[in-house]
Amino acid sequence: MSSADIPEADRIEGAPHPRATPVLLGHPAAEATFLQAFTSGRLHHGWMITGPRGVGKATLAWRLARFLLATPDEEGGMFAPPPPATLDIPADHPVSRRIAALSEPRLFLLRRAYDEKKAKLQDVISVEEVRKMKSFFTLSAADGGRRVAIIDSVDDMNPAAANALLKLLEEPPKAVTMFLVSHQPARLLPTIRSRCRELRLGPLGAQDLSDALTMAGGEVAPEARAALAELAGGSVGEAFRMTNLEGLQLYARLVRLMATLPRMDRVQALAMAEAGAGRGAEAQFDLIVSLIDLFLARLARAGTIGQCPVEAAPDEAALIARLSPHPHAARGWADLAQHLGIRARRAKAVNLDPAALLMDMFLKIDEAAAALSRSS
Predict the structure, then answer these.
(1) Rg for the chain (alpha carbons), in Å?
(2) CA end-to-end span of the chain, whole Å?
(3) What is the spatial distance between Cα 59 and Cα 255, in angstroms, rounded to a whole number?
(4) Model confidence over 340-365: pLDDT tens digits?
(5) How many C-beta neighbours within 10 Å does residue 296 have?
(6) Which overall architecture, per CATH, does domain 3-200 show?
(7) Sign of the alpha-carbon torsion through 50, 56, 62, 68
(8) 323-341 pLDDT tens trace
(9) Pair 324, 303: CB distance under 8 Å
């Protein structure tokens, strides 16, 4: 297998890699925080970039790495140039070209490695990979200047790897800056978190999400932007998956099915269950399961706060108002979502028939709707 064909653990299938995305949309505060630390001479050695999946954390990490490696150390003085006012580095800059080609000698990328014997990506980042990074830091930089490491993501580390990284953070090598990408920082060792400055990224708004998706090669109709932002949770990665698998149309189909509750249309239910089955339909199955969970979560939230979310499908608001009119119903839908999530994970682990699993989920929803209707 050629290097171009090897899958990358930090890349969304079908989308450009974050290192090839020169512009970061929707996170000016995080960029300003880092730039202020740089220009004031208080650049921390460890930066943890956190937030939901797909909102631009890896893009920011590569953008910061490109900036640091392309911006020379200035000693100040009367004739020193003014401090940089932006993180932008031209695409034709030698550092930009080397980073795009993964040939920058002062950059180390730590991610789940590809196992050639098993012909798949490893499940975790192992301690051996962290040791390679440590060895990289022991070498002198080509120009004697700074070096950068990107860890994407630190959540993928096994315990031994996490402890090895902690030692590096406790005794950081000279002139090294590490960017740790984390989707779930609360699960990390508190000592790792405490030794990093955090840059937290939030969900993108509808316009930024649409623009970022367009930059990645996707297309969003103007009338679909709000719905896509709702379903994707402000995540470009999730929006890309939704777009590739026609998630908006699939969610509208799910809403039409739920509109038949509490006497669910079995023909519609069976047809939708079969849409997630069969050879090559694994991605479609995963998306349907995600959309079911999302719909139940929207029911629970609306009943709890007494306000319907922005519609992500035609007539969804009226349906949510009918199915979850009060907190009691909201608790019922929340409990069901948790129960179905556990069942789905167990069923997938034992390779249960996808169509049977989806049909079972629909029947459980129908039963819950009938029970809540009787108790209202």
Answers:
(1) 24
(2) 61
(3) 34
(4) 999 888 887 777 888 999 999 999 99
(5) 26
(6) 3-Layer(aba) Sandwich (3.40)
(7) negative
(8) 999 999 999 999 999 999 9
(9) yes
